[in-house]
Design brief:
Largest sheet: 3 strands, antiparallel
Strand content: 5-15%
Radius of gyration: 20 Å
Distance between the termini: 49 Å
Number of strands: 3
Order of helices and strands: HHEHHEEH
Number of helices: 5
């Protein structure tokens, strides 16, 4: 009887490519130091103004926050609503697509609460 120890698995990692996975795509949307925190803040407190987000996040520059918000808006996860008044008023909230992602990210919170040491 021959051993199966030396046989290659039918799903060899050599043929796999992480970049094409749904997991990779999701990570590309939420990667970085602040995006998940921004999304969490909007989930809990929306709508939220720029300065409120800045205070919530703590040490973040206007440029970095603005860039993160533009990327999240570009990925259709958040919406930016500008009110035509002086001084300008801008509010951020989750889109329907962003809301659907929060269902997934909320599970991170559930896991963290259950496994906190």
């Amino acid at each position: 009887m021959e051993s199966d120890i030396n046989h290659e698995p039918s799903h060899a990692i050599d043929d796999a490519q992480f970049e094409g996975t749904g997991y990779s795509y999701t990570l590309s949307l939420i990667s970085g130091k602040h995006k998940m925190v921004i999304l969490y803040c909007l989930m809990e407190y929306q709508p939220v103004r720029f300065n409120e987000l800045k205070r919530y996040l703590g040490k973040i520059s206007d440029k970095t926050l603005s860039q993160n918000l533009k990327e999240l808006e570009g990925d259709d996860l958040i919406r930016r609503k500008v009110y035509p008044q002086i001084p300008p008023k801008v509010e951020y909230s989750l889109t329907e697509r962003g809301e659907s992602l929060m269902k997934v990210l909320d599970q991170l919170c559930v896991w963290g609460e259950a496994n906190r040491r």
